Fold these 4 entries.
Entry 1:
Amino acid sequence: MTGRSRLKLLCLLAVLVCVVNFAISPEVSAKPKKDVGSGSGKALGKLKKNRENSPPSLSGTPDGVVLENSFYEFVPSASDPDGDTLTFAINNRPGWADFDPTTGALFGTPSAADVGRYSAIQISVSDGLATAELSSFDIDVTSTTLASVTLQWQPPTENTDGTPLTDLAGYRIYYGVDPADLSGLIELSNPGLTSYVVEALTPNTWYFAMTSVNDRGQESDFSNQLIGDTR
């Protein structure tokens, strides 16, 4: 073989080696690279999603009282910084009320048979990853029938200095639904009374206190408070 022929053969072998290497190398190296890259991307994407999720917020103050045969509705205010779809849930839903899981609305009309207290109601909202809750609350279903409370007492016989009380002119009854604000007033001008019926009271917890008054208009200190529940 001449020197020129040997040179051509070497070049041909070199080309074949290059072609074989080019055909084999991508096939051997591509599979491991593809598998590792795909798995790592999914794991990192999942971690990133969990790490960056912002929890939803939930607020609102539900009414704690509703009259029988009256419509009740409470819709909380909810938002999500990420714009995620929110789903609402409730614990201890009153039997007379319905609940909307898409808005968190609690609504219904209790009847006379539903009069009473419904306790530990709690509404929550979730974005699928995090949950926010309102503080639990109660709802009192009260009767629309007006009620009365009977007060009884023993007439005073002495002044504060221990001397006999001889000029008692009557009594004053103070009452209200707030023990610190007895804004209702009934004046009784008969000193011989030992009881009185306070009428036309709405369903509620009422507080009462009395004073005695002499014929000069001087008034005693308040008696101990009495409590009457008309619900």
Entry 2:
Amino acid sequence: MNRIFWVLLFLSFGLFLGISLSFIETNHDRRPGIEWLGNPRSITHFQLESEGGTFDKQSLKGQWTIALFGFLHCPDVCPTSLSELARVSERLREMPTKDPVAFVFVSVDPERDSYSEVAQYARFFDANILGVTGSARNLKSFANDLGVQFKVNPGEKNYTVAHSVTFSIVDPNGALSGRFRPGFDLDTLVKDFTNRQADFL
């Protein structure tokens, strides 16, 4: 059996655990919705790779994009966050929106995660989530522009990667426009997001 099979099997357990915990979470514990930036932040040049080819600054233009950073060996946070991203994707598909929305999962562990494996991993949660990765330099550039931090802790074979758990919203001009954290209320978040879409010039 190939490595991606075991990764998917492992994340299935993590996803089950995350969903189980979400059922016992109270509304009081839920995080606030979208934090919109007063001044959208420009994104500099970067170049990552996906199964469909190059993913770069130009790929962000012309539609809204929601991006999440992580890695395939992430035991619980990434599967849980990706399941939440899939919920947003599904809900937005049900609604008439002004602009299309792209969903992107960025692996910050290119040493172990090929772009084809990242693509397969992302599709496990939702067929509309694009999986990308690239060189450490390009990953760092893109992450910095989105206000996302990550650090690879090399050493053992099963090394860990520390990273921010933030959903970044890029507007159709290709600028960082907002962000939100896991644990959001789906109805509130989707309403806020679609209102911003309608008001976007």
Entry 3:
Amino acid sequence: MERKSFGNMQCPVARTLERVGEWWSILILRDALQGLTRFDQFQKSLDIAPNMLTRRLHTLVDAGMLERRQYNDRPPRFEYVLTDLGRDFRSIIIALNAWGNKHFAPEGPSVMLVDTKTGKQVDLALVDRNSGREINARDYAIVPGPQADSIMRERLESVARRREAANEALLQEQAADDGPKGKASKAKKAAGPKGTDAKSAKDKPPAKAGKLTKLTKRA
């Protein structure tokens, strides 16, 4: 069965997957970013079948991620060197490493990103370079770009409507909590049974046994 091509889709995620969506390709780029360049080095690192490695390397060369360079004439030998496009994939590898450590390493990280000056592990975050602010779902949104077609615009407008509806529901919930009924409900929960402060009632010392005996005799 022929695999569907993502190359003509407008989504940049789909176009990226068209070039590096196969897991061997991502691992080859990981190794290339760590300095590996030669066929035998990749094969030893990945324990991958030679024919599969050949196909993946050729795919990455065709995608412009690697450049094939001859380093020996007799016999002819080639190495695979990262292009600017391939080196720009470093941030994706770093993000995958952080995500994997967070969710799939219960025993603790085996690979860490550290500050080379301090040796401390980096707390990775996605930051807007213009403002220095961390990217989050509350303050940032994906919107149609100048070249978006009607399908892309419709899809992202639908996303925006769902986002607005969710924000409106959250605002209404907050308003209800801050209104008279919400405040009364909070006060009722804070108070003990029948309006008595539960903590005060709990902390009040019990009556002495002697006084209780006298009251019983008088009755």
Entry 4:
Amino acid sequence: MTTVTATHPAVAGFSLASILNSPQPSVALHPKPLLHSLAAFQAAIDAYVYKGKQEIARRKEVHASRLKEDGDKKRDMEEAIEREKRREIELIAVLEKEKLESKEMEASIYILKKQLASLTEQSSSLDVETNDLRTRIARLLKEKSRDLAVLEERAQAMSPELSLYETALGFSVTGVKEDVLLFRFIRLDEHSPNRVFSFVLDLSKQDYSVTMSEPPLGAMPRLVDALNDTREFWTFIKHVRASFVTELQDA
């Protein structure tokens, strides 16, 4: 409420009694001082409102800045969470792959162990077979040496007969290589006395074999079997010569 005093320009000369005694009572107000007061009041209100708006704008800006910071933090956290999720997925994939590789490796190791055990068993078996083969080879070499000694002894004993064969019958023996002999006959064909009938005898194995016959002799397989059964070497030579003559006559 505004207190009006006698010194205020708006109430100078104011008399309540005269106003009440007047037939039409009225109070004269001075507008200029009132307008100045209203203007000052309005200015104060405007300044207050302006200051309030500035404060509101400042608080709004601060709030917006905080919201932006919170939004940035939230976005950073969400991105970090997504990165961790992707990293976790990648780690799970790596772990699954390592588990699979580990299982495959265990399976391979198991197979290799079985193969190693099998090879060890086979090696033991091969050792036994090798020792057996060595024994057999030693026995065969011994038998071969004995047979060669017998052949040499017979050759020496039959040297006169061999000379007779070579001279009268056109028979000769030539070494092709170790344990391989070439036998030649001539004077079998009366129409061509110098025609050569020959065969190659391989003595390198326990069972002898004929590797070449010229001309081919149909009875040769049977004669070789008889030689391996009886070891009658010179009997075999005689039968081969006789077979050449027989097949020549039958031709």
